[in-house]
Amino acid sequence: MDLGFEGVHVLVTGASGGIGLAITKLFLEHGARVSAQYNSKPGPLDNIKTSNDRLHVIQADVTEEKAVTDLFLAAGEAWKQEAQVLILNHGIFTAEDVDLVDMELSQWDRCLSVNLTGSFLVARQFLRQLRRSRAGCGPDLSKVAIVIIGSSSGEFGEESHIDYAVTKSALQTGFLSTLKHEIIKIAPNGRVNSVAPGWVNTVMAKPLFSDPDLLRRTLAATPLRRIAEPEDIATQVLILASSKASAHVTGTNISMAGGQEGRIPPDPEDYVALKSGMK
């Protein structure tokens, strides 16, 4: 099926690895012109660029207002047109388990700055460049779409990672539900949706694969009995971003946790330890 991305300018944040890299590759396969943002290391992006002239790689810190403005200027200059599709994929996750009672303010602030404020800055600049172009000979606004990469953490919470869970919850609820009303003021057919992956086979999932018992309990709570691959997420993102496949879909958050309906069941030994501590 032709999903209508031939010649469409797609900007992907956090594109250098994992889900972001899979998304970038899939859009390229479908004929899009892709502006791929990364923060510190481009990873495989530079190698892909040498064999694909529809990829433009841009370094930018999404927490810096000027850097985000420059990101869109560079992307627009590269393709001689503004971005029509935005994939908000960037984000940070602290690997170490830290309960709220022990969490430093610096960790909290950093996570909100990257995941939440960074998404605000990028989405705002995306809409601003579309509004400016609308007055002239801008891009085809019928293709406009935003897809947010949320998380099952935003729905169920994430013990010892409250900073991450809060940012994802905000993005896939209030941010999503509000932006779907605002985007149509600029692009009448513009759509905003999100996906909420559970465990995905990326660097972030290393703790899962290094702990057989945790993996067992995770799969026991997942009806599909497997961990998602980045390509699983990328395919759903592609469909949501398509004005052909999802023309009447907006304000929707799609769970991609394999049917998981809650957090991972705790180890029974945790209850024993808790009960002992209460004596």
Automatic annotation (TrEMBL):
Protein origin, superkingdom: Eukaryota
Family: Belongs to the short-chain dehydrogenases/reductases (SDR) family.
SUPFAM superfamilies according to UniProt: NAD(P)-binding Rossmann-fold domains
Record Pfam families: adh_short_C2
Species this chain originates from: Thanatephorus cucumeris (strain AG1-IB / isolate 7/3/14)
Keyword Transmembrane: no
Keywords: Oxidoreductase
Protein name (database record): NAD(P)-binding protein
Lineage: Eukaryota, Fungi, Dikarya, Basidiomycota, Agaricomycotina
GO MF, one example: oxidoreductase activity
InterPro entries: NAD(P)-bd_dom_sf, SDR_fam
